[in-house]
Design a protein that fits this description.
Blueprint lengths: L8 E2 L5 H8 L4 E7 L3 E6 L10 H10 L2 H9 L3 E3 L22 H10 L21 E7 L3 H14 L5 E7 L1 H9 L7 E6 L8 H4 L21 H12 L3 H18 L2 E3 L1 E10 L2 E3 L20 E3 L2
Parallel strand pairs: 5-6, 5-7
Antiparallel strand pairs: 1-9, 2-9, 3-7, 3-8, 4-9, 10-11
């Protein structure tokens, strides 16, 4: 319809074939932007689980070539993320540390902290208390990008003495019960959408940890840190945007380092416009790089 001049603006382009055709059309302007959602590995950090130890989580992060794996899994249609605020948000902290790929450092980290039993690929590290770094990695079936990332991560982790078994599972019959109390999972690859404001109390606060009395809350990892609770409370009570951004920047670094989640990517969104679509100049041009491209849409015109 765009190429035939029947419409002048398409608010979402999801087909890869259509995307390629529109990008090649000189009469079409494409926007590309990180969506306001993200994907993640969620670790069960309760005692007795394979990745309850932050050292194990940090080692796994070192064993996966993060950005290259995101590119491969999404076919270059994902923006790597390193914290809980996606890059399309005003509150995104570009100084949040990136993930580093360093297999030697991962092995040193584990052995320095008492993990033993790994000498070659196929072996699995065991902690001082006897917990093996072996876990089922649950991922929603019918989501090819997520499944591919999980499989690629599993292959890489095996080179570090970490065994991840990818379990493609139905969301309603398998995953939801696992993510509810008593939370019988080790790792879940999931995603959150429409994170317009990074008010993440339900995901990371102590009060929202799932329990027998509160079985289906969003903090299914069991992560609880009073310092994080304090930052969350401060961000909710701060009305000055610059000050709030500074609080949330600190929170992003804290969650990145503690690793209840291993943050993966934000989908790249696309919209398409006829070259005839412009603005009347009163509020500036259309921003083709932002999720919020429509902020000045009341000034848009279609040139003849």
């Amino acid at each position: 319809a765009l190429q035939s001049n029947n419409i002048d603006w398409q608010t979402e382009v999801t087909s890869s074939d259509a995307l390629a055709a529109l990008k090649a059309d000189k009469n079409i302007v494409m926007s590309e932007f990180p969506d306001l959602g993200y994907y993640f590995f969620a670790f069960n950090v309760r005692p007795g689980h394979a990745f309850s130890d932050v050292v194990a989580r940090q080692a796994l992060e070192l064993c996966v070539d993060h950005d290259a794996t995101v590119t491969a899994a999404t076919e270059s249609n994902g923006a790597p993320v390193y914290g809980e605020v996606p890059p399309g948000s005003f509150f995104y902290n570009q100084d949040t540390p990136k993930y580093t790929y360093d297999v030697a450092a991962a092995n040193k980290l584990l052995t320095d902290n008492g993990y033993t039993g790994f000498s070659k690929p196929g072996d699995v590290y065991t902690s001082k208390d006897g917990t093996k770094l072996s876990a089922d990695l649950y991922v929603r079936q019918g989501r090819p990008q997520r499944v591919k990332f999980a499989q690629l991560a599993s292959d890489q982790a095996a080179q570090c003495g970490i065994k991840l078994t990818v379990k493609e599972s139905d969301f309603s019959t398998v995953l939801l019960p696992l993510l509810s109390y008593p939370n019988k999972f080790d790792i879940y690859l999931g995603g959150w959408a429409n994170m317009t404001d990074p008010e993440d109390t339900s995901l990371f606060s102590c009060a929202n940890v799932t329990t027998k009395a509160n079985p289906s809350d969003n903090n299914f990892t069991g992560y609880c840190d009073p310092a994080v609770d304090k930052l969350l409370a401060s961000s909710k009570g701060e009305l000055d945007r610059a000050k709030r951004k500074a609080i949330l920047a600190e929170l992003q670094v804290k969650l990145h380092n503690d690793g209840p989640y291993y943050f993966l990517w934000a989908d790249l969104g696309h919209r398409a416009y006829s070259v005839k679509v412009d603005t009347n100049g009163l509020l500036g041009p259309i921003d083709h790089t932002s999720f919020y491209d429509t902020w000045n849409s009341d000034t848009w015109i279609v040139k003849s």
